[in-house]
Amino acid sequence: MVVLVYFSLQTSFVQNFLARHAASRLSKALNTEVRVSHIDFDFFDKLELKGTLVRDRNKDTLLYAGVLRVNITDWFFVKDKIELKYIGLEGTNIFLHRKDSVWNYQFLVDYFSGPPSAKKANPIELTLKTVDLKNIRVLQQDEWRGENLGLSLSSMHLETDKFDLHGKAISIKELAFVEPVFSIYNYDGLRPPRKRIQNDSIPPNDPEHLRWNPGKWSLTINSLTIKNGAMRHDLENDRKPYYYFDGAHFLWGKINSKFTDVKLVNDTFSGAINLSTLERSGFEVKQLKANVRFHPEAMEFAKLDIRTNKSRLRNFFAMRYDSFDDMSQFIEKVRMEGAFEDALIHSDDIAYFAPQLAKWDKRISISGKIKGSVNNLSGKKLVAKAGQNTYLVGDFDLTGLPDLDRTFLDFTANDFRTTYEDVKKLIPELAGITEPKLDELQYLRFQGNFTGFLKDFVTYGTIETALGTIRTDVNMKLPDKGPQVYKGTIRTEDFDIGKFLNDRNMGKLAFEGDIRGKGFSLHNLDATLKGNLGFLEYRGYTYKDISVDGQVAQKLFNGNIAINDEHLEATMKGLVDLSGKVPVFDFTALINNANLRNLNFTKDELDINGSFNMNFSGNTIDNFIGTARVSDASVFKNGQRISFDSLYVESSLQSNGNKTITVKSNEFEGILAGEFNISSLPDAFQTFLNRYYPSYIAASKKKVDNNFSFFITTRKVDDYLDLLDKRLKGFNYSTINGRLNTRDNIFDVDADIPQFGYNKLGFYDVKLQGRGNYDSLSVSTAIGDIFVNDSLHFPGTQLSVRSANDISQVNLKTSASQTLNRADVSGEVQTLKNGIRVMFHPSSFDINEKQWVIDKGSEIILSRELVTTDGVRIYSGDQEILVTSAPSSIGKGNDIKIELQKINLGDFTPFFVKSNRIEGLFTGTVEVIEPFGNLQVDATAKAEHFRLDNDSIGILDLVTTYSKKSGKVTFKATSANENYTFDLAGLVNTKDSLADEIDINTTFDKTNISMLQKYLAGIFSKVDGKATGKLQIKGKANNLKYIGDVSLADAGLLVDYTKVYYKLKNARVLFSDGLIDFGKIQLEDTLGNKGELVEGKLYHNNFKDMAFDFRVRTNKMLLLNTKGVDNKIFYGTVIGKANLNLTGPMYDMNMDISGEPTDSSKFYIVTGSGRESAEADFIVWKKYGKEMEAYRPYGKESNLTVSLDINANNKATAYVILDEVSGDIISAQGSGNLKVRVGTNEALSMNGRYEIERGFYNFNFQAWKKTFKLMPERGNYITWSGDPYEAQLKIDALYEAENVKFSDLLSSGGFSVTSEDVKHYRGKVNVIATISERLTQPRIKFQIELPENSSLKNNSEAQALIQIIHRDENELNKQVSYLILFNSFGPLTAAGSTSNNSSSFASTAFESLVSSSISGFLSSVLTNEFSKLLQNVFNDKSLKVNLSASLYSGTNITGESNSQITLPDRTNINLSVGKSFLNERLTFVVGSAIDFGIGSQQASTFQFLPDVTAEYKLTPDGKFRITFFYKNNWSYIAQNALQRSGVSISYRKEFDRINELFRRKKKKELGVPPTVDSSDEASH
Q: Residue ranges of the Translocation and assembly module TamB C-terminal domain (predicted)?
């Protein structure tokens, strides 16, 4: 039976029957459907169920299992250890559902739940080996909570190594999921809201309070893989998912991962993960590798390495929460914790979460720690880098993400840098802000704190930008609509506000102060500003120290401004309103000082100050209504005050609608009254002028209705005009008035202008009267003088013009001037549409005293349509200009032909050429072809007797052509004259900018080079020689190139500063671009000595910016050959060996000469004018004519410095001239080094010491000539240390008086001696003169000694007499005079004697004009001696005797040079006696002059010349005097006596400096033509 039952159960029929029966019973018990379609049970180890179905109580499928297979241990039911070898489940759907707290499977739980069974003694051990799941679908629909969870699997495979349920240990060898899909869908559930349970009730994750694994199971998974899985989460809402990552609708697909070493220890899962996935938005995680720890409070990823398409995160990341359920509220409840090290995040990856960064294209490097939830995130020690432009070091707290507009940021930036472009990509709204120019910031660097929202924040710190630095403590609001709002404190340093506000006039500023307002642009600005501007740049000037306190609203400012700048000190208070259609100004200002030049408002130095009171509206002169007043003002131009102290401008409307504009100042007044509109005034004048000249001036397109009068009167206004235009001068004390009435056809103007000028053109005494209507205009002008230049002006000019309908009758008359003697030109002028017609009436004019006549009826028409003339003939004697027309040979219409016959160039060239004298007779023909079309000019001419400056060239042939079409001028000049043989051919291109403008080829054949003199003036003169060769000049006009090869023969030149003439017999000069190379040239001086120019280069830029490099070497050559007329201080003749260098550019040329004498040489040092060297006062000089303008080849900027370094030896003799006229000269020989330096802009300086070894001092007094011998043993010298006049000298000189008697000392009777030797002595007495101190004012001390071999040398009485002389300086000077002049002693005067007026003698002994020589000293001594003698005889102290002498030389008088220093050849000795009356106000002087020749050939011309003078002081101080005189003088030139008598009045003034004579500033004159008399008399 048992066997039968066993085998029956093995049959499929029985098994399925039993299964259906069991299912039927279970269905009835559960009150639902339970069904098994097929069962296959293999006793006792296998089971297979198919089509298993379980429904819930709502008849919904709760479970459907397609196939369930189980392999189990044989006879498992009788064994203690059961092994489930295999469990397979396929095609299974599970649906879990609830609408309230009860799930649809609860009835199964209740049914199978029973009372706990008693514990078996030996529990069964169940193990599991393999599980396979395929096509599994699980859906948990929780409507009560509002969450649907879904899970689907394509397959799952599980293999275990250990499955110990009893030991709670499971070890899984492999767990593999294929295409698992997990989904969460959240929506509003049916469960009513519950009070949240505090997290404190949740036990912490520790072994004693396990939540996930309270049974403390042990689970290990060796390998867990997921292939092509997915995870989806959706939150129910009414919108479509975003195209970027949507936290409410995210889908992670293509999840492929592998977990290894997975362990469950207590509540903690751990393992290693390697995962990749792709989110719906396109964000891809290519790799996520980490060591994971997962427990109920956190997911931790250590050794994290996340890689996306463009990013990589490393180190550590964790998500912490109180419950895993918090993941559904990730933003608020999941607390993230990250520690990143060099993490790279690309903005493209961030853009999946923050799409506004999609175009940022930045790679960000992040290091630091981040902690917190998404909506409450903080970062510490964060270092972030984005490329090269954005860098961040700091801490932050973010509250409010992911909503950026509501995100609150508390950011501390230790260093934050970024760029405008980066920020614009982060906040695109910034691109729409055009005012201010945020893009000009370029970059930003911030150190400080940033607190607030992105559009409402407070920033405190330092911001550095490309425009400057800003230190802020400001609250800023950036609303979506409306202007920006701000409040706080700002400090700027060098901030470029001009670029920020896009205002070119403004520049940088420095500001510190409080600001509160809104808006930045001029259209919406409304701010209150109070602070200080350290500086502000405006129009190129930096204003400093500015205080501001006021309101700035849109284009309005109302408040106070104070400026305390170096060049602007001012205050302003009031309103400037530019916001309306018509600006309003209502303010007062006080300007203490404003330098407009330094403020870059004017080019000239202009200072103003004054008070300003403005109360007007308007932005044009037409709508200007109100008043503007300037008072208490001063204006200074270039330091000189301009006559200006007030200005008042008023514009008002009258009741009748007329307008009046009044302008008043202390120097001018003006009024404009009537019906007018300033902007239409040009149209009003155009309406009238069209009636007079309709061909030239078109009718106005605008109909105007003006009726107004104007009146202007000036006083001194030329300074004002200079402010407007430097070329405009004059208009002082002028009156201009007139009226214009378009209704009644009236146009009147009258002007009276004393003088005015424009540029160099001057007009004087101008009186103009104009009367016009719609029919005609009559203008009559009288001009006192029209000044063109020094050579051309038109005095007494009368100009009358009467114009109507294009016809004008013109008459011009002038009076005589120096060059233009007279002019009377009249004719009829017709204005044509494209030209002019002129018909001359009888006319003539004089040039250079030659009358030129214009034939009556001469007519010429010049217009585009017609060019014709019957002949305009202008002639003067043989000179003639004939203008005719003839049919064009190459074009349409007529050509103009101008024939010139023997035109005297000397009459015309002075008008135009100042630097050269050009003379000659010019004859030729000029043809003007198609003057209004393709203009061409052909000219052929010959200049006879052509002369350029001092060079008479001869005949010059000229041919030239100009073509407007090609823009080229070709010309050729030929000279076949002796010494001037050359030809010149060239081309000037005026059109082709790419080609050379000038190309000239010149050929020379023994042509005199003296014409080059003017270009070398100041350095060389007497340039002479013959040039042969070719020279080409080509290039742009401002950059010409000189290229050629020229040979010089028989050339020579004089070095101006040394006056040495050098000959250059043969030389070759090479011209190249910018260089003239003279090569090596043999030089020869006038004595036949030779030297060599070892290098000679002249650098130039089109003969400008010249530089020299010349070097000369010689062993013997004339180095210095100057005379007194060349240099009044140092001159002479020096022959020696030397090195001469001329180097440097023309603005700093240096001529260095170093050498030493090798042959007999001499040089002269002049100390100054001696007393007797005054010019002879009986010579009167006259000069005639007018000199031409001097030519300055190098301009004011040229400078030549000459340095002489002379090593003097005994081959050179030095002459120290104490008095050039009298011949007082020290001649000496010695040695030393002298350095002499002088230049065009540098005074003469000398340095060195000259040791005198031997020499003589020759002095002359009238006809006496005496010689002192320099004493060599005394160490004589002269030393210079800069100023030659400050030279120091020390010279001892000896004069030996012969046959001197001591008895002459005793002749006065006051002294006696007993020694017969003294009484009878006749022998030598030495006079020693010690000359010391300054060379120009030497101190001369005398000493009388007896010679060493004198018989009285040791005589006590003789020595006593000499000591008496030495004790009294006056006595010593007197005895020296006697010894030198007469070789004898004078009577000895006892000290204290009543006959000795020593005090008077001492006071006047050295009152001579110049006591720089012994001769001057002697003159003074003798004059005082004679005065004292007469005063004692007549007992009258007012008597004065004057003994003076003037020595003069014909060579000095006539100015002729003399090659030697010679003594004067004539002497004029003047002896006079003066007597004063009326308390010295009236003085009579009676005397005589004796004039005689010194030389033997002039000794016979002895003359006695009596003089009488009476002088009366008109004022007590003697400044004004009247003199009556009768004088006789000797005429050196006429060789006879001349008598003069007359009266003179004089003014005398003492002064220390020349400028003290001219304290009163001369009035500035405008271009006044100089008055040139026939003679310009100068006398001395």
A: 1083-1551
